[in-house]
Specification:
It is a single chain. Helices cover about 30% and strands about 30% of the residues. It contains five helices and eight strands. An eight-stranded mixed beta sheet has the order 1-2-3-5-6-8-7-4, with helices on both faces. The relative contact order is 0.14.
């Protein structure tokens, strides 16, 4: 159990969960989320489409049984290709490899006000993804201007690998292997230990 209670995932139901997540994806804090500004019926339709896709699914993250974060998992081999941003950043074009799993992650605005909750929730998600032995790397894409998300990704083990251009955004694509995720968890555990004080004579 995390300091924030029991964190779990359940499949998203487009018909019952659209009303729950609509305020999340349209909140000012979610300006970098692809559906920012969408109407309720558009959110419902979008996740009906996700539910119908073979290589894309969505989950609602729960905190002690209450919805608190949103997760999308997809196969990058079936995603829209992106163009490299050029010599200003990492070079080359990302090419999915066997075992790559794409991830989109959003914390509910109210839950995101609790310091450390985003990290705990994303850690739960990665534990879930890496529990599948077929998962070799997790791939996330964040808007280049979304420094908060990129810092969170780095804390749990992601490493920026490419800058890509899409019609609607300039983004950074980061990768996390199982080994990097586990190493990051060890670093956080060590950093959280109380400092030892020298015994007085």
């Amino acid at each position: 159990m995390s300091p924030f209670g029991t964190l779990t995932l359940r499949p998203l139901d487009p018909f019952t969960d659209a009303q729950v997540i609509h305020p999340w994806v349209t909140h000012p804090r979610s300006v970098f989320w692809p559906m920012w500004g969408a109407r309720l019926h558009e959110v419902e339709r979008a996740y009906m489409h996700v539910a119908a896709e073979e290589h894309h699914d969505a989950f609602v993250g729960l905190r002690d049984g209450e919805p608190a974060f949103l997760v999308e998992r997809h196969d990058p081999r079936h995603a829209e290709p992106a163009e490299p941003a050029g010599p200003a950043g990492p070079t080359g074009l990302y090419e999915p490899e066997p075992g790559d799993v794409g991830l989109h992650f959003l914390v509910a605005p109210d839950a995101d006000r609790d310091p450390g909750f985003g990290q705990a929730a994303l850690t739960t998600v990665l534990e879930h993804l890496f529990a599948d032995p077929r998962t070799v790397r997790v791939v996330v894409e964040a808007d280049a201007a979304d420094h908060r998300a990129r810092e969170l990704h780095e804390v749990v083990g992601f490493v920026a690998a490419y800058e890509v251009e899409r019609p609607e955004q300039h983004s950074v694509l980061s990768l996390c292997t199982r080994e990097r995720f586990e190493a990051a968890a060890v670093r956080r555990a060590v950093a959280s230990r109380p400092a030892l004080t020298a015994a007085r004579p």
